[in-house]
Amino acid sequence: GDVRCRLLSRGMNDIYRIGHQAGPHALKVERAGKSTKTEFSYEQDYVQHLSVQGIEVSSPVALLDGSMFFSVTAPEGQRHLVMMRWLEGVPYAGDFSEDDAFRMGALLGRMHLSASSFTSPHEKLVDSERKVHERLPYLLAIVEPQSDDHEFLARAAETVLEQLGSPDWKNIPRGPCHGDLQCANVMKLAFGGLGAFDFSDCGHDPLVKDIAAFNWRNDFNDRPQAINRSFVDGYDSIRRLSDSERAVLPLFRVLRHIFITSTMAQYVNRIGPVVGFDRKLDFYFDMLRRYCREAG
């Protein structure tokens, strides 16, 4: 029968809705250079594992040869493509309740517990500390040199990276993480449950960094702190955070803020402005100063 392809979104990935006789699917076309074949293979293995464990995710659909994705050579470089299960529902893009946040936290808790048995012959690290080192110069380049903001940003990045390198945090729980578990990547499904999608930033990492990612996006969107507390309560109902994870969380929020803003500064010349990340620099610095105060 007829096959229809419609672009839904573009950015770090291009996402298409593929309509055909067997039902809709989602096609993800990753940006050139976003990940290696090994890293992309890890992502598909991880998402497939979560699906087998009963988590509602946009899991990969195998090709006729049994592989989970294929790659094409485009003018800009090699791009990886994966056909995925279509999740019928609506992403949490706007306001939502404390109860919704609790359910999202519980979903993340189930994902972390389910992934504790995950194995893959492929390796992928989130490695945001290394990426901050690489991407921070792009952010510093758009801040006025010799300004207080420039000096503060450089000092904040140096301090948080130094503190996170302390032996005090070497033993915090680690494992497969979503990497960008925030409201916009959680879907309220048609049957009432919750599903997770967009695992492009997944990889092995401290588990609590997934909570920092949710906190950051919630704060960025000026939502009440009660939402963050409800999210953690939901997570604790499934997998209780350790004392060390709670203690390091403020540092990971600082890291998350610098990582995201540096990434946007790096990618603006590749994919153009990203909707929602186009505020004035003063907003970002106010948020960074607040996070640094909370981290001590």
What's the structural blueprint in terms of helices and strands?
Elements: E1 4-9, E2 13-19, E3 25-30, H1 37-52, E4 70-74, E5 77-85, E6 89-91, H2 98-114, H3 128-140, H4 148-164, E7 174-177, E8 186-189, E9 194-196, E10 203-206, H5 208-220, H6 225-236, H7 243-271, H8 281-295
Overview of this protein structure:
The chain has 296 residues and is α+β, with helices and mostly antiparallel strands. The protein is built from 8 helices and 10 strands. The strands form 3 sheets. It has a 5-stranded antiparallel beta sheet with strand order 1-2-3-5-4, with no helix packed on it. A 3-stranded antiparallel beta sheet has the order 6-8-9, with helices on one face. Strand 2 (13-19) and strand 3 form a beta hairpin. It is globular. The N and C termini lie far apart (61 Å).
What keyword list fits this structure?
about 300 residues, alpha+beta, 3-stranded antiparallel sheet, 10 strands, globular
- pLDDT averaged residue by residue: 93
**SS-based class:** alpha+beta
The number of helical segments is 8
Shape: globular
> Count the strands?
10
In helices, the fraction of residues equals: 40-55%
Radius of gyration: 19 Å
Following the backbone from N to C, one meets helices and strands in this order, namely EEEHEEEHHHEEEEHHHH
Which stretches are low in confidence, meaning pLDDT under 50 for 5 or more residues running?
A: none
Sheet with most strands: strand arrangement: 1-2-3-5-4
- Provide the β-strand percentage band: 15-25%
Q: How many strands, what sense, and barrel or not for the largest sheet?
A: 5 strands, antiparallel
Terminal Cα separation, in Å? 61 Å
